[in-house]
Amino acid sequence: DEMETSQYDMGAASLISLLGVAVLFVAGFGGWRLPLLTVATLILAMAWSLGYTVLSVGHLNILSISFGVILIGLGIDYGIHYVSRYAELRDADVPCEAALVGSIREVGPGILTGGITTAAAFFSAVLTEFTGVAELGVIAGGGILLCVAATLALLPVMIRLSERNDRVWRPARPLPLAVLCRPAAWTPRFWIWVSAACTLGLALGLPQLTYDHNLLNLQAKGLDSVTWEHRLLESGEHSVWFAVSMSPSREELQQRKRRFERLPTVHRTEEIISLLPEADAARTQLITQLQDQLSRLPQTVPALPIASREELLVALEGVQAVLAAGERWPVACLQLAGQLPGQLYRADWARLGPRIGRFQQQLAAATLHQLQTLREVAEPAAPILEDLPPALRDRFVGKTGRCLLRIYARGNVWDMDALTQFVRDVESVDPQVTGHPVQTYYSSRQMQASYLHAAIYSLLAVGIVLMLDFRSVRVSLLAMLPMACGVVQMFGLLGWLEIPLNPANLIVLPLILGIGIDDGVHVMHDYLRTTGRYRVGNSTATAIVLTTATTMVGFGSMMIAHHQGLRSLGQVLSLGMGCCLLTSLITLPAVLAVLSAQRPSAAQEPVRSAPPAPHFSHRRSGRPEQHSPSLVALQTPRRADPDPSG
Predict the structure, then answer these.
(1) What is the model's pTM?
(2) 469 alpha-carbon distance from chain centroid
(3) Which residues pair with 615 in a beta bridge?
(4) Is the CB of residue 150 less than 8 Å from the CB of residue 47?
(5) Given Cys at both, which of 126, 172, 178, 234 links 30, Cβ 3.0 to 4.6 Å?
(6) Nearest CA to 503 among 63, 113, 200?
(7) CB-CB neighbours of 568 under 10 Å
(8) 239 with 584: CB under 8 angstroms?
(9) 67-88 per-position pLDDT tens digit
(10) Which 3-state string (H, E, C) describes 542-595?
């Protein structure tokens, strides 16, 4: 039921997220050609990712089945950043080919860094011990790199082919979303204090954040399997789950059984070895004698003679004497025995005699049949395992002769505290015990630890990539600021909203580290290629808003899922991305505005001896814009970002 529900939910969520991303993209750019080309690039990258999944892992599991939604929500981001800058250059009357090259030159490093950091965050999950998390990391990490490759290699080609006649068609102007960031540039210190106060207020909810290990709470509501599981838990004091202990011999199994049954968390045990009696010399001799006596039984009942009336009266007198000598016979039996002789004496013997004979013959036939059945089972040798039905024997005895013992837990083992105590108790008897409750206990704990380890590895990978890109500890830490604040705000919100973490949504921890860093990277690249007091450029602001919105739509589509785990994953990721968006557009620009308050503008910058860079004429604005030819030049302030509203 869980697999079928999750497959259906992820299929529906993938379709809804793809349509939602496309609609949001078109609305944000005010046109349809660039958005549709970007979505087509994403679909092609997803096709590559399916082939990569077949070659790398070969299958999907209940965690990695969500990779489609992940790629839709994240893979579209790189195309948005590219076409956002391209549309801005084309709006400034830059020719198509020059705009394509300029977009690659300006936002390409940010796209590459963001893609590598996100992929590194996923690939770091390979270092964890939980196979499901590791496979998701391999599939999603490779898919992200393929989305980046498709954006940088194919999207420019598709745009160029679609603009063969650039005099007829010009891309629509994106929404001027940079105006949303202007307050942070006007009063940066005020917004820094506001951001700090909001982060601190949300952080107060961290102590209320809980972790729910109960896998039953992740299932879709209304499933028959879930409903009956709850009924079984409510109707009895024991669970249908059982641990399994394997013993090499009958003696060891019996010894373990007695020890298990003394545990307070064990309700009962189950095995079949006790159904086989041990060999007993006295019992074997008795059965042998019985078998010898029964071997002389006739095949059919012989004709038995009918006794006379006098013989029956004599027999009844003997019965009366036996009954009178006994002390345990009921009064009714004594009265009946006293009445029978008189009734027999007064009865018509001509009619009664044949009836007694027929009854006597039937009684003898029934007795002979029972004795013949007893003769067939009167086997002196003790029963062996082969005498039991194969369906029963194969469940409890292995091919090598090892014996299985089932240990049923007392109480609700879906509860983590009860499950923990049960596992500890049974392992005190048999350290090698296994079974569903033991596997669930260790997989839940291992999954939780794997997510935490993946988050640590993701943070290290992100830090290394940022250092390779920016070559500055200060700039790298500034790029990580939105992600750090967003993580604190997200977990604080979960505490205030009483949304628990669980084995399904805890994957948000490594994910948010890889995803939330992208916006900070693009803001820092925008900061490094401008001069003067920093204000977020329109293309950067538009791209950040649209990429985050599409990511929230992609992951938010999982909130329609019936599977409670997938639904909670959509909720948590949507909240986390919203927090990272606000900190990327308000907190980080405000900090950069304060840091760049004394930075010289383009007019005050002295002439450098750097090689000349290509100039793209801005016929609409009348201001030439210079584009740095390399990533090193991009990290040196070269020009003031033109005000889109001016």
Answers:
(1) 0.65
(2) 34
(3) 626
(4) no
(5) 172
(6) 63
(7) 25
(8) no
(9) 777 787 778 888 888 888 888 8
(10) HHHHHHHHHHHHHHHHHHHCCCHHHHHHHHHHHHHHHHHHHHHHHHHHHHHHHH
